[in-house]
Amino acid sequence: MIKLGAHFGISKGFANVPEVMNEIGANAFQIFVHSPRTWKIKQLNVIDVENFKNKIKKMKIDKESMLVHSGYLINLASPKDEGWKKSIDTMIEEIKITASLGIKYFNVHPGSHLSEGEDFGIDRVANALDIIIEQIKDFDIMILLENVAKKGGNIGYKINQLGDIIKRTNYKEKIGITYDTCHGFDSNYDIRTKDGMDNLLFEINEYVGIDKLKMIHLNDSKFDLGAGKDRHEIIGKGFIGEEGFKNFFKYEKVLNTALLLETPGTDEDHRKEIAYIKKAIAQ
User: Fold this and answer.
1) 193: which of 73, 132, 133, 275 lies 20 to 30 Å off by Cα?
2) Chain mean position to CA 102
3) Which amino acids does the record list as binding Zn(2+) 2 (predicted)?
4) Can you say which residues are annotated as belonging to the binding site for Zn(2+)?
5) Local confidence band at 283 (pLDDT 50, 70, 90 cut-offs)
């Protein structure tokens, strides 16, 4: 069965997420564990967590279908020691919450080197991951590095950069990747064509290992190939377009990986989008 879902809010509690997921015809989800634009993390509601875990078990949602996304302030590539250390400490706390929810996969953007250079940034991220994983290595957690748009000193806009980060860590088995279709399109990965898809899958296998691709963020792009803008669009309505995603859905690895929408709109909008995607895949 194809794993297809979206990002869901937690304002009504973690336990509400599986219900909303089911209501919109999804069977996979992504969440934040706190407000992503602040450092502050609220104390967990134990009853809410237990209700969430009970619903996950009852609905038989497996670990390959659930993802936590890190907060936006985290920058593991930062040359500024205070921000770098705060990013590490915050990510450790977020991962502890992820583990307490029974979720295996934790997604993070590698961050920006802030004009210090890509090699510096790659080293900085690898060092941060070693510190983090040393603290959480006994949890059933895998950290997924997400490819990003090429802008603002971002690390991870090319697949080989993600591979270089993993190679420089001491915990390679605890790290995988998420592929974001909009970010990739921003960085000249053209999934609209057979040659483009063949190249993408080749690079993932060559630099990271195809088995390390654990999640896909399914987003169209408001801007054309290589724009580096990072502006998500509804599936089929952007520059990747209907035909581009039809090509993307031809690939077995894609259909065997959880597909998670991060597109504009409400849960109801995502319900319609999920129905559209199911139809496109079935064609």
Assistant:
1) 275
2) 17
3) 146, 180, 217, 262
4) 69, 109, 146, 180, 183, 217, 230, 232, 262
5) confident
